[in-house]
Amino acid sequence: MKKQSSLLPVGFYDLLFDEAEKNHKNINNAIDAFLKAGYRLIKTPLVEFEDSFIEEKSKNYFQTIDVISGENLVFRNDITPQISRLLASRLQEEKLPLKLCYVGDVLCAKSEDLYKDRQQTQVGVEIIGCDEEKSDFEVIGILLEILKKLSGKKQENNLMIEFSLPNFLEVFLSELKVKNKEELRAAIVQKNISAVRDLAEENAEIISKIMLSNQDLKNLTKEISSKIKSQKIADEIKKAQKISDFLAKNFAEVRVCFDLFGDNNSSYHNRITFDVFCSDFSYPVARGGRYKIASKGKEIDAIGATLYMNRLRKIG
Hints:
single chain, 316 residues, alpha+beta, BirA Bifunctional Protein, domain 2, three-stranded antiparallel beta sheet, 10 helices
């Protein structure tokens, strides 16, 4: 008789006792907060036809074949594509804006994290069909309130939120009169300051400052506007300024950084995207931003955020 192995595949895990109970409480506390704020809970299946994930660029999901239909199936690595499917089917008659929350495990074929978790639990919130800034503030606000509670008293004052503007890099480059824009774009994305100095000429200094994560948005904005006269760039920065003002007024204890260029790798996000960090933990415990989602044959605006319960377990 073959001996049963006690090992699990890399990135999969058992949760026992205190750790399992902490995870359970965190999930329930987050969902309860969303429900009390008027969000409606949805539960979507772990497995979908691959067509629902056709826009997934990384293809970072497990695949199999459905023995009934013969079609390709994927084990979801994100829940947002499933919301798009629901909007095109069972939710298509719902009045917008639609406020949703969700909880579920996702499976990733690969993980670049130190902990290599490939089974991850996501708890998230979405406002679909509203392009007003107040919905940005609502999602960011409820996310930070929940994280303050879940991170515990020792960590509640150690939260940091970092914003970037996914459209800013292209707007910025379109306004600059420089040669070799493609090379400059690559250098900025790679955060290669020495290459930027070679390529950007008189704009190298201000670009280098923007590339760094900045906590002093006010002074950075002054420097940008003094060196580069552009209404389009000013309009982009205004988005960051409004967020900064909202957080200063409502969450003064939360540190705020702006990496305006970001990593240009936020997949489907546009206008704004953000990561929330806790203490010295290297990976974001939450992430979110604005995006477009398909509904009734057209794209509509949405804002969402996801809490990574696996990472929250490791804090405190």
